Amino acid sequence: MTIQILITAVSAVIIGKALSKLKRREVHGGTCSAWILFWIAVIALVWQPNLTNYLAYILQVTRGADAIFYLSLVGIFYLLFRIFIRLERMDQEITTIVREIALLKNRKDIKS
Amino acid sequence: MTKSLVWIFIAAYNEEATIGAVIDDCLGVTSAIVVVDDCSTDTTVDIAHRKGVVVLCHCINRGKGAAIRTGTAYALSQGADIIVHFDADGQHHAFDIPRLIQPILGGRVDVVLGSRFLNGASTNISPARRAVLRLGSYFTWFFSGIRLSDAHNGLIAFSRTAARTIVFTEDRMAYASELIDEIRRLKIRYCEEPVTITYTDYSRGKGQRSSNALAIGWKMIWKKLFLG
Question: Can you give the residue ranges of every domain in chain B?
Fold first, then answer.
């Protein structure tokens, strides 16, 4: 029971933070909805562990816990992939800025 | 084509020991030289400035691929017809440049890649390094479909058209493999020319470690698989 209450409390805090960010328009509606749905699902699974058996049936694995493990693995790798792509893009943007500064500074030096 | 339309681009990072001599060597070919300093912490910039060449400074270290894009953008803005990439560690020799740019001047190709392994080339490369570079060439051949005798030689000449068309996204050393990909993708005419590479203790210390080849290879595989 303690772990169930703890996970519910943590999930509620995360959902609350997501909602306040949405209110301040700091996150996209779609991303925020997906995030909130995910944590609602976590709460549901914590209180109704039998729901994982249904997932196990769909994924054709023996145990509900295995289904959660496999899905988490896929989710984590997908997140890693998204983070990698975002980092690549940020890297390129930083390089563009550094290049523009170098070229601008040269033009400024020539003028002065 | 006049001499002044050939621009030499030198990417430098903490090269105070060699940059002066490298610039002097290049000044024998053209005075149109741009040094891109990749945030050196030594006196590289001061030495380059004293030589009277154009010096562009990256305010943070971004890697050789990034420096190449800065140098290329500058040279193109100055009306360069040919851009020659030249290493700052003293491995390359300016006497190779006239031969390197000849196929471009003749209108035969748009990119000329220097090779230390072709007939007529000269190098004091170690057997281990030779083996790693050979593997690198096979790797490039496998992924790009272009077979080169020396896929990772920094001495390269580009026509203006090629320099404007080729798009680098790699900031670090993987730009070399990306270049070959771009040559194939854009169907750019290219050839290899023999060049002299002189390894010194200094250049061995400064150059790419053989172990870095694995990191570069992995990055290229990752990009091919997931980024297209």
Answer: 3-126+152-168+189-207
Question: Which of B62, B76, B178, B226 is best to mutate for the A interface (most A CBs within 10 A)?
Answer: B62
Using a 10 angstrom Cβ sphere, with 0-12 exposed, 13-18 middle and 19 or more buried, the burial of residue A83 is exposed
Instruction: With CB atoms and an 8 Å threshold, state whether A98 touches B227.
Output: no
Question: What's the rounded Cα separation, in Å, for the pair B133 and B91?
Answer: 16
Q: B56 touching A, CB under 8 A?
A: yes
Looking at domain B3-126+152-168+189-207, its CATH architecture is Alpha-Beta Complex (3.90)
With an 8 Å Cβ cutoff, are B54 and A106 in contact?
Answer: yes
Give domain status of residue A60, yes or no. Answer: no
Q: Which residues of A touch B175 (CB under 8 A)?
A: none
Do A37 and A3 share a structural domain?
Answer: yes
Q: What is the ipTM of this complex?
A: 0.82
Residue A72 Cα, gap to closest chain B Cα (Å): 20
pLDDT digits (tens, 9 = 90+) for A70-84: 999 999 999 999 998
Residues in chain A with CB shorter than 8 Å from the CB of B62 are 94-95, 98
d(CA A42, CA A39): 5
Please check the confidence at residue A43 and state whether its pLDDT lies above 90.
yes
Q: How many domains does chain A have?
A: 2
B144-156 as b/e: b if 16+ CB within 10 A: beeebbbbbbbbb
Chain A nearest C-alpha distance from B195 (Å): 30
Give B56's contacts in chain A (Cβ within 8 Å).
Answer: 102-103, 105-106
A92 lies in which domain range?
65-112
| Predicted confidence (pLDDT) per residue in B61-111, tens digit | 999 999 999 999 999 999 999 999 999 999 999 999 999 999 999 999 999
Instruction: Read off the pTM.
Output: 0.80
Q: Is residue A55 part of a domain?
A: no
Q: CA separation (Å) from B127 to B123, B148, B150, B199?
A: 11, 18, 14, 13
